[in-house]
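User: C-alpha cells in, sequence out, please.
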C-alpha cells in the first residue's frame, strides 16, 4: 500500500479552505492527476485520474465529513484508494490543510512510480496548487456544510 502525507498552510480562514475542498468537481483546476470528478450525491463521487501515465476510474464514498474539520473518503469499486483531509486553524486568516492518501499501486508502472516517489511529488505539487487556487480567488467556488458521521 502506498501512502502520501502532505500539509500546507493557506492564507485563508478555515471555513473558506474547507468549503472549497467540498467542491470536488473543482479538483481538476488544482490537481494535475485528476481529470474529472462527478458528484453523484452528498456521499458519492466518480473519479477519473491519470497519474504517472496511468488512467483509473473509480467510485468513492465520503465516509466522514465534519464542517471545518475533516473530509474522509474511500473507493467503493474494488480499487484500493482512501484518503482524509483535515483542516487546522492556525489563525483567523491562516489554515493548515493536511492530506493523507493511501492507495494500492497496480501494475508495473504504478508500482515503480510509487517506489520512486512519483505520487509523493504529485501530491506535493497539488497541495501547492490548492494554496495558489484558494488564495488567488478571494472566495470559495461553493460549499457543502453537511455532516457525515463515521459509521461503525
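Assistant: Sequence out:
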Amino acid at each position: 500500500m502506498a501512502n502520501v502525507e502532505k500539509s500546507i498552510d493557506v492564507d485563508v480562514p478555515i471555513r473558506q479552505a474547507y468549503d472549497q475542498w467540498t467542491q470536488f468537481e473543482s479538483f481538476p483546476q488544482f490537481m494535475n492527476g485528476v481529470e474529472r470528478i462527478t458528484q453523484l450525491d452528498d456521499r458519492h463521487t466518480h473519479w477519473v485520474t491519470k497519474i504517472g501515465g496511468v488512467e483509473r476510474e473509480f467510485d468513492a464514498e465520503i465516509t466522514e465529513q465534519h464542517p471545518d474539520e475533516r473530509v474522509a473518503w474511500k473507493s467503493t469499486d474494488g480499487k484500493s484508494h482512501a484518503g482524509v483531509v483535515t483542516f487546522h486553524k492556525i489563525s483567523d486568516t491562516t489554515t493548515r490543510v493536511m492530506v493523507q492518501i493511501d492507495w494500492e499501486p497496480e501494475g508495473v508502472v504504478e508500482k515503480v512510480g510509487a517506489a520512486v516517489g512519483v505520487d509523493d511529488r504529485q501530491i506535493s505539487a497539488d497541495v501547492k496548487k490548492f494554496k495558489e487556487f484558494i488564495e488567488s480567488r478571494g472566495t470559495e467556488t461553493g460549499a457543502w456544510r453537511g455532516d457525515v458521521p463515521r459509521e461503525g
